[in-house]
Design a protein that fits this description.
This protein is mostly helical. 66% of the residues lie in helices and 2% in strands. A three-stranded antiparallel sheet has the order 1-2-3. Strand 1 and strand 2 form a beta hairpin. Helix 10 runs antiparallel to helix 13. The radius of gyration is 22 Å and the shape is globular.
Length: 361
């Protein structure tokens, strides 16, 4: 493990750094190795004692949403530069806590990730404030400039990512009972839909930023346009795969429930499904993403009570033959090729392969 630990120096982006920490923890290293890894990685706020950690964060945000405040004509303004740097400093603390959480064993990782969500929620609120301030300031310089959701979109992506990790680690630790699987898969599907929305938002921001950059380049012939990798497609494809798999398991669980195969796990006399639901997802009680309320959750009790005769057979056939497992399997088969294609791009890569399928199988 000590030899593997030194390979963190090969990671050149925040995406690859987080991916390395996740994979390192899967090797079940000893406490000393996990501790040494973080202290080797971050020395006095610098990655490997060399580059400022904020530089990696800035590159990651540029890759995800391409904020116009990073453009040279705007970033050279002292007010814009000060605001951007202040946001990066505040973000740095939260992301460091995220990475450090990956240096614990799985049980403590889960607790740390749950405790990290309120911090990310506060960061999201601040990022919205920074977006609004920069948008108001930059539109005064150029009415076509748009900075809304540039920072907050990326922070929301990280938040949803942490929530998904929290649920998947629960599968690895075998924390969920059989009768809880249905609403865990429902929440996973809900989170993957949020993840998809944030990536699409990032795509829209990139398109807007590139259009403005093109216009600025025409005004200023000496301005160089950055070459960009189109890498959000991979994340969207992997998100669709996991969402389909989650939905397939939801329908399968509903079929088993209608057949009565889950009756032995449900105590209908003393069961309080709403209370169990609220306790299981208590760490998700933050403002964004909007929590999935029990009133919007199609509970198994309701499904069983309102299921027509033969409904379970329809559910099983749909899961097997239609969109869910078959389509998810087809897309997953093409994902490794996509992963290789985009990883060859080097610096500009997103964390498409971090959402381990261990919890969705």
């Amino acid at each position: 493990h000590m030899d593997l630990m030194t390979r963190v120096s090969d990671s050149s982006t925040l995406s690859s750094i987080i991916r390395f920490f996740v994979r390192f923890s899967e090797q079940t290293p000893c406490t000393l190795s996990r501790s040494c890894l973080f202290h080797l990685f971050l020395v006095d706020g610098k990655v490997l004692g060399d580059e400022p950690f904020t530089k990696f964060i800035k590159h990651e945000i540029r890759t995800f949403s391409y904020p116009i405040s990073f453009f040279t004509p705007y970033y050279s303004d002292p007010n814009v530069k000060q605001t951007v740097n202040q946001f990066l400093e505040e973000t740095s603390v939260c992301i460091q806590n995220y990475i450090q959480a990956m240096c614990h064993n799985k049980g403590r990782q889960r607790r740390k990730l749950g405790a990290l969500l309120p911090e990310l929620n506060e960061l999201y609120k601040k990022s919205e404030s920074y977006d609004n301030m920069l948008h108001a300031y930059l539109t005064g310089m150029d009415p076509t400039a748009n900075h809304l959701r540039s920072f907050s979109c990326w922070v929301l992506f990280i938040t949803v990512e942490v929530m998904i990790k929290y649920l998947l680690i629960g599968w690895e630790l075998e924390l969920y009972s059989i009768h809880e699987a249905h609403y865990v898969y429902c929440y996973l599907e809900y989170l993957f839909s949020w993840l998809r929305q944030t990536v699409i938002c990032g795509q829209d921001q990139i398109a807007s930023g590139e259009a403005l950059e093109k216009k600025l380049a025409k005004r200023n012939k000496s301005m160089k346009r950055r070459k960009r990798e189109k890498n959000h497609h991979m994340v969207l494809q992997m998100t669709n795969v996991y969402q389909m798999m989650s939905h397939g398991y939801i329908k399968a669980m509903e079929g088993f429930a209608i057949q009565g195969k889950l009756d032995e796990y449900l105590d209908r006399q003393f069961d309080q499904e709403e209370l169990r639901f609220r306790q299981r997802f208590a760490p998700f009680a933050i403002s964004m993403p909007i929590p999935l309320e029990f009133s919007n959750y199609p509970s198994l009790s309701f499904i069983i009570a309102n299921a027509p005769s033969g409904k379970e057979e329809d559910l099983f056939k749909r899961v097997a033959r239609e969109l869910h497992f078959r389509e998810g399997h087809f897309r997953a088969d093409s994902a490794p090729a996509l992963c290789r294609l985009f990883s060859e791009g080097g610096e500009n890569e997103l964390r498409a392969d971090e959402f381990s399928c261990k919890g969705v199988q």
